Every structure is written in C-alpha cells, then in structure tokens.
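Attaching the record inline, Q. Sequence:
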Amino acid sequence: MRSNPLDIVAAIGLAIGGALGLAGTFVGSDALRETLWTIDGVALVVATALLTMKYQRLGNDCVAAGFLTFLAGESLLLAGNAAGLEASVPSYVGGISLWAAALVLISTPKTFALWMRLTAVVAAALFVVSAGLIIWGTPLLPTSSPLPAAGYPFLLLTFIGWIWTLLKSD
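Structure, as predicted:
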C-alpha cells in the first residue's frame, strides 16, 4: 500500500525541519542561521498541522493535541527568530516549553514505537531543564551547549522515527 500524499508532505516537512534546524545551530553567520531556522520552522509548522489533522481523524486526540501543541511552540520560535539569538530568548523559552509538553502528549499513548517515545521524553526533559535554567537566570542561548543543544539530537531521532512511521508500508 502506498503512503498518503499528505503523509509524504509531513515527512518531508519533518526532514527539512530536522536537518535545517540542526544545521542552523552550527552556522556562524546570523543571517544564514535565521534563514535556515525560518525555513525549518515553516516546514515543521506545516508538518505538525498535517499530523494534527491525521491523528484527529484517526481518533487519537492526545497525539493530535500534541502535534497541535508542537505547532504552537514552533510558531513562537518562528516569531522570535528574526530578532537574533539574544532577543529571541523569551520566545525560545516559550517555544521549547511547548515542545516539551507536545512531546509528552505525543508519547503518552502507545501510538509510536517505544524507542521513539523514549527519545521524545528525553528531549522533553532536556528542554524543560533548559527553559527552567533560563527562567531562573542562567544566560543560555538557543545555540548554547551542553544545554539546550543536548536536546536537539533526541528531537531529531524522534523526527526520524515519525518519518519512518509515516512512510512505512501499511
């Protein structure tokens, strides 16, 4: 059986979002980083909007709500992106906090394989810790290491799992 065309679009959005989001973390140029993160953010908003609709139609309200929450978080990240790293921190904290909530919502039901749910929960925990540190005064940027950067590989692994789930044969 062939994948639904909208599943393919969602998978492409997740792939673009994951690849360009990670790439943006490592580039030195502010303009290039903001460009990559803008494309990444739009791709993830489209992908998570489609996934919201897919899982809502399937009757999986918790997963649908999770993808909708991820969309809201990604929208906050997009809103702050053009302001530059330092000025984007308030919207970044809101965005990764919503990402964390979304990842927990998506991972609570047994919709996805256990390894995907575990990578999502690890990413969520790292994003919550990062947001908490920033709120309590630690001067972290979206590109800071080890936090919040440690959460990105786990988020990327989760995206890979979601892509695999969307594209595998029924």
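The chain has six helices and no strands. The mean pLDDT is 95.

More tomorrow.
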